[in-house]
């Protein structure tokens, strides 16, 4: 899920902060307060993440701006946890901003659902992968990961398996400035999908 929080204050000159409602100060306080959403509201045995990925406010060092904006990424596996995160983020934002005399707008967007692979299709995908590259080059089972994926929508309607094609043990992940796609993956990937289709059609023929 994602949230855009816009904090409205009252701008002014940096030399007269007492005449303003500083949205930058409010944003700083809110950043720290939001760190308690997971640590003090969610069962430690559950997975939950609240990341503030961007903060935008002001353009000059001697001007207190009118507003500030925070961009959040929120992740979980459980629908109850998902609802709790939204509830607590909304409550904390409104209460914290009001304490400083400002106001807030929250645009909260429910994103992709959780990817849940089905057992039979996952086992079939594993068998084909091990047949192609050997079991030593296949990581299975693979535990839960908190990245989001729109393939989840397919799995809500049809059984299937979402899997990853590795890019090398020491290669940086995507969304990293040093990420470099390994061109050798094109051959491996094409071979895997071809064999997957062949084995699937062979099952149907049998």
Would you mind describing this structure in some detail?
The chain is α+β, with helices and mostly antiparallel strands. It has helices spanning 23-34, 36-39, 79-99, 119-133, 152-155, 184-205, and strands at residues 2-8, 12-13, 48-57, 63-64, 67-76, 103-109. The strands form two sheets. It has a four-stranded antiparallel sheet with strand order 3-5-1-6. Strands 2-4 form a two-stranded antiparallel sheet. The radius of gyration is 23 Å and the shape is elongated.
Which short descriptors sum up this protein?
alpha+beta; four-stranded antiparallel beta sheet; 38% helix
Average pLDDT for all residues: 95
Helix content: 25-40%
Percent of residues in beta strands = 15-25%
Individual helix count: 6
- β-strand number: 6
Radius of gyration (CA) equals 23 Å
Distance between the termini: 43 Å
General form: elongated
Give the structural class: alpha+beta
Order of helices and strands: EEHHEEEHEHHH
Q: Return residue spans where pLDDT drops below 50 for at least 5 consecutive residues.
A: none
Largest sheet: 4 strands, antiparallel
Kindly report the spatial arrangement of strands forming the biggest sheet.
Answer: 3-5-1-6
Topology:
Blueprint: E1 2-8, E2 12-13, H1 23-34, H2 36-39, E3 48-57, E4 63-64, E5 67-76, H3 79-99, E6 103-109, H4 119-133, H5 152-155, H6 184-205
Antiparallel strand pairs: 1-5, 1-6, 2-4, 3-5
């Amino acid at each position: 899920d994602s949230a855009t929080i816009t904090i409205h204050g009252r701008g002014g000159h940096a030399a007269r902060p007492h005449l303003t409602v500083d949205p930058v100060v409010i944003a700083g306080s809110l950043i720290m307060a939001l760190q308690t959403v997971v640590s003090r509201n969610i069962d430690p045995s559950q997975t939950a993440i609240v990341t503030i990925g961007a903060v935008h406010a002001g353009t000059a060092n001697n001007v207190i701006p009118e507003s500030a904006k925070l961009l959040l990424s929120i992740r979980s596996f459980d629908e109850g946890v998902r609802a709790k995160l939204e509830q607590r983020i909304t409550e904390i934002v409104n209460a914290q901003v009001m304490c400083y005399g400002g106001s807030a707008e929250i645009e909260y967007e429910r994103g992709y659902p959780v990817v849940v692979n089905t057992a039979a299709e996952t086992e079939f995908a594993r068998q084909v992968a091990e047949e192609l590259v050997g079991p030593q080059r296949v990581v299975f089972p693979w535990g839960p990961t908190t990245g989001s994926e729109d393939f989840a929508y397919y799995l809500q309607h049809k059984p299937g398996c979402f899997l990853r094609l590795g890019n090398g043990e020491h290669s940086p992940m995507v969304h990293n400035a040093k990420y470099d796609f390994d061109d050798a993956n094109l051959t491996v990937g094409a071979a895997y999908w071809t064999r997957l289709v062949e084995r699937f059609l062979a099952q149907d023929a049998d």
